[in-house]
Design brief:
Layout: E1 2-5, H1 17-27, H2 31-38, E2 47-52, E3 58-63, E4 70-72, E5 76-77, H3 87-93, H4 95-107, H5 112-119, E6 138-142, E7 147-152, E8 155-160, E9 192-193
Antiparallel strand pairs: 1-2, 2-3, 3-4, 5-9, 6-7, 7-8
Helix pairs in contact: 1-2, 4-5
Amino acid sequence: MSLSFGGRTAVGRGFGIPIVMRYALEFAATTPEAVKLLTRMPVHMSYSIAVIDRAGRRATVFVNPDRPAQSVGHVVSTNHQHAVEWPRHAKATRSVERGQAPRRELERGAEPDALLAAFLRPPVLQTSYDRRYGTLYTVVYRSRGASAELVWPEGHWRQSCADFRDGARTIRLASTDDGGETPMPGGMPVGGVVR
């Protein structure tokens, strides 16, 4: 599972998203089971959750505190759901542009390495850490092999369920912020492609 802030200011009564995702990861064995859980749990803010299981079944679920959750067929998600509802945030995080870049690569039939390269350069890669957002890492999920690789421009770290190794990585984040508008709190911009 991966998570993106949903780009909406609505807040409400519900669980924090870490609890929701942990619950789904513990009690759902398949994507359809995860979707069922995610669409019935109340959340306190809006998020887009991408899910993929070992059989390669995938879904993106839009959860919100003020309207029903919805499973959609999107393979790319950034910091807005169907449409931009918080223009200031979308402009500051370049949410639309960050979604368009991997979609273009997919439309061109990009191989996995070319698609990953798109995540490691602007506009998908964000370096506005001084403004409280920026890309921390990109994750390549390999569902059939139950592994994940955390990737950033200067390196990568692969972990698998079959050969998990404790460890730590220290990454120095250098801001190349060019000023501009600062969005309200809403998390780090992340994007993902579920393949």
